[in-house]
Amino acid sequence: MVALTLGEQGALLVTADRTLRAPGLQMQVSSAIGAGDSFLAGMVWAMNRNASLEQAFRYGLTAASATLLSIGTALCDPVDVERLYREVAHE
């Protein structure tokens, strides 16, 4: 499994069987510090809870996006992650 964050262009997840792509969410960026780490953490968190691959990918993207809303080195707020989770669309 290979997961790539693509900045404002979203993210890409490739496995032996499939490819998932999600566009970036349009938002005002306060800080990008920790966004990539939050992407990975969101995916691992969801997979640890037996989420589907699609759900885990969405949680990764929304955790990264929610981190962009935080100031400085602060990471994502779980409330923002859940709100943004509903907005992510897959291609």
Describe this structure in words.
The chain has 91 residues and is of the alpha+beta class. The protein has one domain (2-85): Ribokinase (UDP-N-acetylmuramoyl-L-alanine:D-glutamate ligase). The protein has 3 helices and 3 strands; from the N terminus they run E-E-E-H-H-H. It has helices spanning 35-48, 53-68, 78-85; strands at residues 2-5, 11-14, 19-22. Strand 2 and strand 3 (19-22) form a beta hairpin. Helix 1 (35-48) packs antiparallel against helix 2 (53-68) and helix 2 (53-68) crosses helix 3 (78-85). The chain starts with a strand and ends in a 6-residue tail after the last helix. The model has no long low-confidence stretch (mean pLDDT 91).
Under the CATH scheme, the architecture is: 3-Layer(aba) Sandwich
The fraction of residues in strands falls at 5-15%
CATH fold topology: UDP-N-acetylmuramoyl-L-alanine:D-glutamate ligase
Rg is 12 Å
The CATH superfamily name is Ribokinase
How are the strands of the biggest sheet laid out side by side?
A: 1-2-3
Query: Main β-sheet, in a few words?
Result: 3 strands, antiparallel
Helix content: 40-55%
How many domains comprise the coordinates? 1
Uncertain segments are none
Order of helices and strands: EEEHHH
Give the C-level CATH assignment: Alpha Beta
What's the pLDDT, averaged over the residues?
91
Distance between the termini: 18 Å
What characteristic shape results from the CA principal axes? Answer: globular
Number of helices in the DSSP assignment: 3
Please state the oligomeric state of the protein chains shown.
single chain
**Category from helices, strands and their pairing:** alpha+beta
List how many beta strands DSSP finds: 3
InterPro entries: PfkB_dom, Ribokinase-like
Protein name: 6-phosphofructokinase
Organism: Caballeronia humi
Pfam families: PfkB (PF00294)
